[in-house]
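[scheduler] slot 2 assigned
[scheduler] job type: sequence-to-structure, two independent chains
[scheduler] chain ordering preserved from manifest
[runner] begin chain α
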Amino acid sequence: MVKVCIVIINYNNWADTIECLESVLRNNYANYQIVMVDNNSSNRSMDHIKAWAEGKSNMDPNPDNPLASLSYPSVQKPVPYVYYARDEAEKGGDPEKEKDLEKAVGSNNTITTQYPLVFIQTGSNLGFAGGNNVGIKYAIRRDADYILLLNNDTVVERSFLSELLYTGKQVDKVAVLGSVIADYQTGLTVFTNSKIDRKLKAEIRLDYLNSHKRWWETERVSGASMMIKADYLVKHSLFLDESLFLYCEEIDLCTRAKKCGLKVAMVRNSKVYHKESASIGGPLSPIAVYYSLRSRILLARKLLNLRDRVVFWLLFTGARIIRMLEWLVKGNRPLLRASWLAIRDGLKGKSGKGLL
């Protein structure tokens, strides 16, 4: 039975992370381990998450939430865990210590993995890309067959992982597999397929909403739930690009995988419910606007030849002028400023963590 490491990044959003953990611990595939990476949260997130694992606190479900059954009632506590600093984790942690904490797979509302949780403190905010790469390095050292990157503001259906793995075993040369994404609030499907347009914007399409196919190829998966085959990751260096820091990492990763002759696939019956951009204030927060724009400019510099870069700038500039005029009319100074800084920093090639 292949082993999967599920990497979840937390940054000042411990309540969503706990709900996500409760959900994942119910999934119906047993040979997995959760690796929760904290990006140096400033709100004592690790203390809250440790207290939850130790059974000292629980999150009460919202009775009006139709997805409550995916995360509640709470799994039995305590949930065994180990805690590593970044340098320890990237070396593979302490296998003997983890072995001592392994337990029998449970049933009902008990945890469904024999492995302890792995908590990693990075010591600084490394962004989505950097935080995930820490978890990926740990997973590789521990001989994971697949590495699943899962957003902390998600809850999952019980079969989400087993369905990804089934397709991974059946399809030749598939390196990246993605879940179908539904909106957490409404339950409506919001992602089944994606094209990458000439502005390097991921155009979300619902072409396969009524498809009977079990899987289909796509240009990119959703970063909310994407699984990478470890052998391909190592062979082709498919780590996330830390220069992007936040946003567009999955576009870059999937593009690089396809250039290596590998496949990128969506899996129909793997379903994840997502609270979009919950940890940064939503998709139209200044942080979201800044990084999404800057990352697309950095991608253009990295991925496009001269001719395609000219087309990118013509289309990108026109779209930006229209949107910034709209924000000017509405008096939305924070988003105007975020847009301007993103364009400036992207043109300068500024990467990593930006200053808003």
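[runner] end chain α
[runner] begin chain β
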Amino acid sequence: MKPWLRWDPGGDTVLAVASDIAMWAIYFANSHIGTDHAIARLVFFVILGTLFLDVLFPAWYVLRVRREPLSELGITTNRWLLALVTSAVLCLILFPGFKQAAAARPDLNVIPHLIYNGIILWEPFFVFSWLQLRFERAFGIIPGILLAAMGITAYHIGTFPISGVVAMFVFGIIDSSAFRISRNLLSMFPFTWALASGIGTLQGGLAFGWNLVVLYSVILAIQVVAIVMMAKTTACCETVA
């Protein structure tokens, strides 16, 4: 059992904080790039941000640099049933809020919006698998939860309205606490995040269609394949050693 409170920051902590600052810069810049600069947004936000910074870099650092198992990224079969039950409970809680937010957008195509928010591995992976577990290692369970909530809130500052930022922090605490119950990413991804992010993006004035579903399906496939390959390489190296 890890301590509720501790003080042991290290290189992981520095990288976690630096990556969150970098994500704020990318998120902020992307929101201020005109819609006529599609290539710049693709390269800057999608490839540099959501593909590399938020998933491939943390996975590479944990799996290849530190040579730790996938469980240190919340990817594990341990407590999978508890994670699914947690996700089901959260979805039941979140659904009325999503229904209300969707009703305020009569132009919303609900199905692609939900699918898009359910396949964006980058956000739950970055917030929970990366930030929260690094902060927990450095400061303990309670600070890990609070700092993860602050982390997801931080990179929305200057992009979302103040009310949305405040709501993001509240939901961040709830989601981080729920993730910590099982320490399994399945509690957040994909079902919980489809609704949680579905609400958050609508509150931020964003709605997504099939074009982004296709794009992020490709991004997700690349991320999954890369993580599997890095995990296998790490396992092979440990076997040889």
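[runner] end chain β
[qc] chain β: Residues 11-240 form one domain.
[scheduler] slot 2 released
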